[in-house]
Design brief:
single chain; about 230 residues; alpha/beta; putative 2-phosphosulfolactate phosphatase; 6-stranded mixed beta sheet; 10 helices; globular; binds D-malate
């Protein structure tokens, strides 16, 4: 099933949750692990992020913080996937807190398996789901402060389309597949229509949108190794 945060049930968890925040948290997570980061530790709270990692030398860690699309003061970086070059992140532990994506992750972190997916790496999630066949799968779109988002929905649609899930998905899955079918060749344009895409454009992040709109340029599957800690499978 596909859930927006508002509609994610509070009293149950799936066998596998796939958290999606295409603009930009799960794109950043994929880009960072693909570029050789050791792990990405997700925090919903900035104060906790700042307090974490004291056991590591400053050269071994990077703090990435975003609120409202802007970098958080005092962090080493914001949430731009384009900053996650091998030079910047390879061999490092990343500590990440974002407005919606890391909160969505926290919401489902006790699921039996937790993956993250974005447009740049969704095929890796498809391969995992095909291979492992978990009985209940939630595709969780992070949205914006509890609301639906086009970019997360279209990525969920790409995953569901590849899995031929239309027969088993809820109505949200069917809607996501239809959105993907209509926009699959114009994702960057779709993202520019979306409300968070508009916000990122106002903040001068057009290059991030174009990067996030690429399909499967990173062959990496972020998987949760312990609650809140993602590594490349
Ligand atoms: C979020 O978690 O809301 C985002 O990833 C926002 C962003 O950095 O664009």
């Amino acid at each position: 099933v596909f859930h927006t945060p508002e509609l994610t049930p509070a009293d149950t968890l799936p066998d596998c949750a796939v958290v999606i925040d295409v603009l930009r948290a799960t794109t950043t997570i994929a880009a960072a692990l693909h570029a050789g980061a050791v792990d990405v530790r997700a925090f919903s709270d900035i104060d906790r992020l700042m307090a974490a990692g004291a056991e590591l030398a400053p050269s071994q860690r990077l703090r990435l913080g975003e609120r409202g699309g802007k970098p958080v003061e005092g962090c080493d970086m914001g949430n731009s996937p384009l900053d996650c070059t091998p030079d910047a992140v390879s061999g490092k532990h990343l500590f990440l807190s974002t407005t919606n994506g890391t909160r969505a992750l926290k919401r489902v972190e006790r699921s039996r398996a937790v993956l993250t997916a974005a447009q740049i790496n969704y095929q890796a999630a498809v391969n995992y789901l095909r291979d492992r066949q978990p009985e209940t799968v939630w595709l969780v779109g992070s949205g914006w402060q509890g609301t639906y988002s086009l970019e997360d929905t279209v990525c969920a649609g790409a995953i569901a389309r590849a899995l031929e899930a239309s027969a088993v998905g809820n109505d949200e899955v069917l809607g996501a597949i239809a959105l993907y079918d209509s926009w699959r060749d114009r994702l960057s344009e779709l993202f520019r229509h979306s409300s968070h895409g508009q916000r990122l454009l106002r903040l001068g992040n057009a290059a991030d949108i174009d990067y996030c709109a690429q399909s499967n340029c990173c062959d990496v599957l972020p998987i949760q190794k312990e609650p809140g800690v993602l590594v490349a499978l």
